[in-house]
Amino acid sequence: MDSAKTVLRSEFKPQDILEMKKESRGDISIGGAELAGAAISAGLMNEIYLFIHPIIIGGGKPAIQSGSLKSLVFKEKREFDSGVIMLHYMCQ
14-91: CATH homologous superfamily? Predict the structure, then answer.
């Protein structure tokens, strides 16, 4: 269900994101490894925040597909009391 700050779609379409970016007065957040990875591959991301959690699960989904970006510029790192580490990058 869509709301004033949330839009749900059943499939990823880069054009939908481009339209949202034009109409938005603020930032747009895209979450989840597969969805964010598709947006990164489509060149739609300006910034990336990666959150590393200190849990071993034996696998997972890559957040950034091989060959998706030309380069990332490191901006900041934050460590939380829980052990979570946030890495902030600008996309080039």
Answer: Dihydrofolate Reductase, subunit A (3.40.430.10)
Q: Tens digits of per-residue pLDDT, 7-39?
A: 787 788 899 888 888 888 888 888 777 788 888
Cα–Cα distance measured from residue 72 to residue 77, given in angstroms and rounded to the nearest whole number: 14
Give the span between the Cα atoms of 29 and 45, in whole angstroms: 9
56-63 contacts: CB < 8 A, separation 24 or more? Answer: 60/33, 61/33, 61/34, 61/37, 62/33, 62/37, 63/33, 63/36, 63/37
Residue 82: how many other CB atoms lie within 10 Å: 8
Which residues does 20 contact at the CB level (< 8 Å), separation at least 6?
Answer: 7, 28
Are residues 47 and 30 in contact, defined by beta-carbon separation less than 8 angstroms? Answer: no
pTM: 0.72
In degrees, rounded to 5, the angle at the alpha carbon of residue 68 between the alpha carbons of residues 92 and 30 is 80
